[in-house]
């Protein structure tokens, strides 16, 4: 049963040029209507996936730090009534590092949020302008300092492998980031996603993405610096001190059940994949008509679930327990993985097996997408 809840707040002040998440800019947001809709959607999920206390809640977006703290608090109160909370529950909220949103951090902490994930994205003003961010470095650092005063756990994101970025510049920036003292960092290479402004810019020759070889060099620097600082990668792009890993994201990567509410939110409960309406107005209409915002509710075949579990789990440094997946999905181990490719990848130092677990090595992580296509059994992908 679901022990994690994802709440999507779809609104932003501006659409970033690299972002392909379900985010929307609106001149006005009717908070009463959104509170009623999210409450109804949450109650619908609880009827279908209750039974265990929640051990993580994640407010994502969009920009959930634009939510009134009172609304956050009331949603948390309702979630606790519906499911109950594990005594050590992790409640994360994504936040932009503006001074306006940082001013709400104390109230958000009082509402129950105990972990914040800040979208700093860069410690260089020119890079922030390129990325279309509304804050500068000084404002971002001030917001981080405020967050560290109010939340027991703080993470922040950086985007690297920007056009023209060299090893020296990234090493200096990452060293500065590590010195800021958080116990969790999310470090993402810039990827050009379809249907974003950056995709259009690349197509029109406005800029060229960094080549693969320099990207690989920056990835190696990232692993080296974070390992030395006691912030090893527990997932391809996420680094944490022991015990400070994102419990909510581990729910996804370990392929446990979770409920997702709000526009565009995905969920996995009892072998069923759920998707909510993406456009905010369509979501509100659906909840008013049906009592929930679901646009698709699809039962997954066991082979499809196994493929998803492998594709998610192989992102983790800990790897995936093949014997457990075999029992869970009633699929022989040899039908989970392309055995002929596995041996070659192990010999090349790109994959490993130990104690019935399979994982991708540090050398293999920069090639993760290609390796997943090689490792996951063709019969699962075709299911």
Q: What is the name of the CATH superfamily of the largest domain? A: Aldolase class I
* Binned strand content: 15-25%
Task: Give the beta-strand count.
Answer: 15
As residue ranges, the low-confidence spans are none
Distance between the termini: 24 Å
Largest sheet: 9 strands, mixed
**SS field, number of helical segments:** 16
Protein structure class: alpha/beta
Order of strands, widest sheet: 7-8-6-5-4-3-2-1-9
CATH class category name of the largest domain? Alpha Beta
Give the number of domains.
Answer: 2
Assign an overall shape. Answer: globular
Please name the CATH architecture of the largest domain: Alpha-Beta Barrel
How would the blueprint of this fold be written?
Blueprint: E1 4-9, H1 31-49, E2 54-61, H2 69-83, E3 85-95, H3 99-102, H4 105-111, E4 115-121, H5 125-130, H6 137-150, E5 153-160, H7 167-178, E6 184-189, H8 197-203, H9 212-228, E7 233-235, E8 238-240, H10 247-253, E9 259-261, E10 266-269, E11 272-276, H11 280-290, E12 294-299, H12 302-313, E13 320-321, H13 322-329, H14 339-347, E14 351-354, E15 357-360, H15 368-375, H16 378-381
Parallel strand pairs: 1-2, 1-9, 2-3, 3-4, 4-5, 5-6
Antiparallel strand pairs: 6-8, 7-8, 10-11, 11-12, 13-15, 14-15
Helix pairs in contact: 1-2, 1-11, 2-4, 7-9
Can you characterise this structure?
This protein has 383 residues and is α/β, with parallel strands linked by helices. It has two domains: 4-253, Alpha-Beta Barrel (TIM Barrel); 316-381, Arc Repressor Mutant, subunit A (Orthogonal Bundle). Helix content is 42%, strand content 21%. The protein has 16 helices and 15 strands. It has helices spanning 31-49, 69-83, 99-102, 105-111, 125-130, 137-150, 167-178, 197-203, 212-228, 247-253, 280-290, 302-313, 322-329, 339-347, 368-375, 378-381; strands at 4-9, 54-61, 85-95, 115-121, 153-160, 184-189, 233-235, 238-240, 259-261, 266-269, 272-276, 294-299, 320-321, 351-354, 357-360. The strands form three sheets. Strands 7-8-6-5-4-3-2-1-9 form a nine-stranded mixed sheet, sandwiched between helices. A three-stranded antiparallel sheet has the order 10-11-12. The chain has a three-stranded antiparallel sheet with strand order 13-15-14. A hairpin with a 2-residue loop joins β10 (266-269) and β11. α2 (69-83) packs parallel to α4 and α7 runs parallel beside α9. The model has no long low-confidence stretch (mean pLDDT 95).
């Amino acid at each position: 049963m679901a022990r994690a809840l994802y709440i999507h707040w779809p609104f932003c002040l501006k659409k970033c040029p690299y972002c392909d998440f379900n985010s929307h800019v609106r001149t006005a947001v009717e908070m009463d209507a959104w509170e009623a809709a999210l409450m109804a959607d949450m109650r619908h999920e609880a009827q279908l996936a209750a039974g265990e206390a929640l051990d993580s809640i994640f407010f994502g977006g969009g920009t959930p730090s634009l939510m009134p703290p009172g609304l956050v608090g009331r949603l948390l109160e309702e979630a606790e009534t519906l499911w109950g909370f594990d005594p050590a529950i992790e409640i994360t909220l994504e936040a932009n590092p503006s001074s306006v949103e940082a001013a709400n951090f104390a109230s958000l902490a009082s509402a129950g949020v105990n972990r914040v994930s800040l979208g700093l994205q860069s410690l260089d003003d020119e890079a922030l302008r390129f990325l279309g961010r509304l804050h500068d470095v000084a404002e971002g650092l001030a917001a981080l300092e405020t967050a560290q005063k109010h939340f027991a756990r703080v993470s922040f994101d950086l985007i690297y492998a920007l056009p023209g970025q060299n090893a020296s510049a990234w090493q200096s920036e990452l060293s500065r980031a590590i010195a800021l003292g958080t116990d969790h960092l999310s470090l993402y290479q810039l990827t050009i996603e379809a249907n974003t402004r950056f995709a259009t810019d690349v197509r029109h020759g406005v800029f060229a993405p960094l080549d693969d070889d320099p990207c690989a060099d920056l990835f190696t620097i990232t692993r080296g610096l974070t390992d030395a600082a006691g912030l090893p990668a527990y997932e391809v792009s996420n680094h944490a001190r022991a015990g400070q890993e994102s419990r909510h994201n581990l729910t996804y990567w370990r392929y446990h059940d979770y409920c997702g509410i709000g526009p565009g939110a995905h969920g996995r409960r009892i072998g069923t994949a759920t998707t909510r309406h993406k456009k905010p107005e369509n979501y509100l209409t659906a909840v008013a008509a049906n009592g929930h915002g679901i646009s698709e509710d699809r039962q997954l075949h066991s082979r499809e679930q196994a493929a998803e579990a492998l594709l998610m789990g192989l992102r983790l440094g800990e790897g995936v327990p093949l014997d457990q997946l075999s029992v869970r999905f009633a699929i022989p181990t040899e039908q989970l993985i392309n055995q002929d490719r596995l041996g070659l990848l192990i010999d090349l130092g790109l994959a490993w097996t130990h104690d019935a677990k399979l994982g991708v090595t540090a050398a293999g992580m920069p090639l993760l997408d290609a390796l997943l296509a090689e490792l996951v059994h063709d019969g699962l992908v075709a299911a």
